[in-house]
């Protein structure tokens, strides 16, 4: 399973409940996923309520919030449910991390290909959006041009995903591999590994054929285009493609074809200058993996095939 690349997404809400009562001079902060504890107004919480709070940078601990840049249109990884709440794998994992760190993770919607820019400008503290950890992203390299476009980021890897192709149901036109797309049209989300693969594979086509590609701001737009007959195939990360196949039109719209390719880690992107936040997130991820909370989340969303056993730093290639 590859993630949204350059990689860089149902309808179950994270449960947020207050446990206990803590007297504070400021506001009460709700954090985490599942049964929650109340933290004091600076977000630090008590040692019992938030065992890893002291690992956070003081500024974030005091604010009580980690601002998350995310493209919230990538079910089941992150998306809006019927009530408009942000739900999915990433929000649930973030809520569990919040319980360990004593802060709230505030998901802010943005188009996928602008998330790292927003991180660089400090609009966000982190980017968590089914983003594939790649060397290009680590080094600030544009994967298309090979040119340096800015400071790279560090990744805290928390999942593994590959890229899949899907077609209208019953109309695969013999498409099984990326090379089978030569002479056909594919729809993808802009700034993703799927888009990169389509560009790369098109250059390999022979006989004067190419892969025609239409890119969209989000994956839902690409699905709509394919559903309307505007392309021969679509591509996205395996969890997202599988979810679309299962749910779109009650399972009657799409079908997966071939095998997923380029399995790679999803990573939480953090500015290279913010190593303390990076290391705190890694510690919190390892804590929820050890406690079993992580496994509960990925199983809940049916993506446990991509589960990891430890959080690593910059494991992408």
CATH class (first level) name of the largest domain: Alpha Beta
CATH topology of the largest domain: D-Maltodextrin-Binding Protein, domain 2
CATH architectural grouping of the largest domain: 3-Layer(aba) Sandwich
Structural class: alpha/beta
Could you tell me the number of beta strands?
15
Radius of gyration: 20 Å
Q: How helix-rich are the residues, as a percent range?
A: 25-40%
The figure for the number of domains is 2
- Mind telling me the CATH superfamily name of the largest domain? Periplasmic binding protein-like II
- Major sheet summary line: 9 strands, mixed
Mean pLDDT, as a whole number?
87
Q: Could you explain the architecture of this structure?
A:
With 317 residues, this protein is an alpha/beta fold. It is built from 9 helices and 15 strands. The chain folds into 2 domains: 196 residues, D-Maltodextrin-Binding Protein, domain 2 (3-Layer(aba) Sandwich), CATH 3.40.190.10; 101 residues, D-Maltodextrin-Binding Protein, domain 2. It is globular, with a radius of gyration of 20 Å. About 14% of the residues have low confidence.
Topology:
Layout: E1 16-17, E2 29-30, E3 34-35, E4 38-39, H1 58-63, E5 65-70, E6 79-80, E7 86-87, H2 89-101, E8 104-109, H3 115-120, E9 126-127, H4 135-139, E10 153-168, E11 185-189, H5 193-202, E12 212-216, H6 219-227, E13 233-237, H7 238-247, E14 254-271, H8 275-291, H9 293-300, E15 312-313
Parallel strand pairs: 1-3, 5-8, 5-9, 11-12, 11-13
Antiparallel strand pairs: 2-4, 6-7, 9-14, 10-13, 10-14, 10-15
Helix pairs in contact: 2-8, 2-9
């Amino acid at each position: 399973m590859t993630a949204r690349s350059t990689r860089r997404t149902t309808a179950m809400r994270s449960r947020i409940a207050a446990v206990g009562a803590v007297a504070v001079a400021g506001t009460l902060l709700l954090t985490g996923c599942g049964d929650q504890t109340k933290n004091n107004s600076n977000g630090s919480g008590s040692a019992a309520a938030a065992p890893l709070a002291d690992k956070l940078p003081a500024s974030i601990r005091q604010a009580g919030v980690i601002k998350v840049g995310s493209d919230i249109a990538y079910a089941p990884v992150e998306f809006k449910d019927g009530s408009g709440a942000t739900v999915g794998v990433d929000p649930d994992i973030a809520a569990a991390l919040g319980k360990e760190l004593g802060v709230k993770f505030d998901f802010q919607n943005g188009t996928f290909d602008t998330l790292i820019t927003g991180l660089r400008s400090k609009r966000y503290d982190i980017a968590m959006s089914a983003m594939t950890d790649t060397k290009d992203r680590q080094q600030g390299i544009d994967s298309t041009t090979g040119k340096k476009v800015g400071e790279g980021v560090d990744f805290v890897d928390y999942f593994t995903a590959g890229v899949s192709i899907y077609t209208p149901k019953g109309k695969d036109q013999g498409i099984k591999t990326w090379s089978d797309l030569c002479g056909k049209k594919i729809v993808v989300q802009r700034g993703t590994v799927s888009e990169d693969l389509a560009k790369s594979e098109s250059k390999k086509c022979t006989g004067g054929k190419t892969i025609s590609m239409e890119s969209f701001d989000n994956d839902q737009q690409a699905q709509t285009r394919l559903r309307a007959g505007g392309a021969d195939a679509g591509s996205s990360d395996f969890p997202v493609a599988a979810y679309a196949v299962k749910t779109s039109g009650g399972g009657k719209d799409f079908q997966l074809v071939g095998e997923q390719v380029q399995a790679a880690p999803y990573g939480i992107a953090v500015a290279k200058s913010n190593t303390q936040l990076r290391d705190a997130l890694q510690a919190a991820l390892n804590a929820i993996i050890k406690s079993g909370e992580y496994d509960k989340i990925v199983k809940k969303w049916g993506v446990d095939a991509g589960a990891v056993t430890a959080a690593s730093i910059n494991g992408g290639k």
